[in-house]
């Protein structure tokens, strides 16, 4: 850790050269994850608020569940080419993305993953925090919300669950307006019922096969908590469905989603009608 922090606190050119090197690629990472020692990686944050929120989310999950999550060592306020903020955390050793491991797993191996995910998601819903009633990332103030349920851009922040409901009502109105102008088919549906917004539960919100790692002991790790927060219960299911379609994941994985996350078929159909979703969903 000392070596890692020395590097991070050093001159920018040292950090920049570290960021650009590709000598030790990390299986299951993207370009915003950098390995800085044998057992340590650094995630580059978009901004300081989202960095601290993700670090907090990781702590909540580690303390209140039995989900395998990398240990967060430190969050550092640091400007870099990708934004502001760094999260120093443990490397998940000898692991690979689930999308890489999935084809070689036996039926029982895949079933174990599905059942583990089912258990993980139930544990997530029990997480408590002082901002439980505020939609979006955990933290002292409402923050912008990310997730495929909002498209590709962040929306909000939403100070109350009523504000989140209003957002989706406005999306329904926009769909009707597009139809009236002849730009799209009529959604032919009413706004989402208020019952869809009666509660918020902790949600990973980006559970794709790239953010699930299997180590050599067959333990399933969940990484990349940058989109996590408190959302209606149907968010997790839709996020997994949309990610699986966008990433063109195996059909066996797509069909398993309804056995991992609580299905939300009616909301999924409603979202399709107003223009959300991906081809063939």
Automatic annotation (TrEMBL):
Pfam families: APH. Residues 199-242 form the Aminoglycoside phosphotransferase domain. InterPro entries: AGP_Transferase (IPR051678), Aminoglycoside_PTrfase (IPR002575), Kinase-like_dom_sf (IPR011009). This is Aminoglycoside phosphotransferase domain-containing protein.
């Amino acid at each position: 850790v000392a070596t890692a922090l020395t590097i991070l606190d050093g001159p920018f050119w040292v950090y920049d050269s570290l960021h650009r090197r590709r000598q030790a690629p990390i299986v299951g990472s993207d370009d915003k994850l950098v390995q800085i020692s044998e057992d340590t990686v650094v995630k580059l944050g978009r901004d300081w608020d989202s960095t601290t929120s993700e670090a907090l989310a990781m702590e909540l999950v580690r303390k209140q569940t039995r989900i395998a999550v990398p240990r967060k060592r430190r969050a550092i306020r640091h400007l870099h080419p990708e934004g502001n903020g760094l999260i120093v955390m443990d490397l998940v050793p000898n692991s690979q993305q689930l999308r890489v491991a999935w084809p070689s797993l036996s039926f029982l191996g895949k079933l174990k993953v599905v059942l583990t995910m089912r258990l993980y998601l139930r544990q997530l819903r029990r997480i408590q925090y002082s901002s439980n009633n505020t939609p979006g990332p955990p933290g002292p103030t409402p923050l912008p919300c990310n997730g495929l349920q909002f498209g590709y851009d962040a929306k909000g922040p939403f100070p109350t669950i009523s504000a989140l409901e209003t957002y989706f009502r406005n999306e329904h109105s926009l769909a009707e307006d597009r139809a009236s102008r002849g730009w799209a088919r009529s959604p032919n549906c009413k706004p989402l019922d208020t019952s869809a917004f009666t509660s918020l539960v902790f949600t990973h919100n980006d559970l794709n096969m790239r953010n699930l790692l299997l180590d050599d002991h067959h333990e399933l790790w969940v990484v990349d908590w940058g989109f996590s927060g408190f959302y209606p219960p149907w968010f997790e299911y839709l996020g997994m469905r949309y990610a699986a379609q966008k990433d063109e994941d195996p059909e066996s994985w797509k069909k398993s989603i309804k056995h991992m996350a609580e299905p939300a078929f009616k909301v999924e159909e409603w979202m399709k009608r107003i223009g959300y979703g991906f081809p063939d969903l």
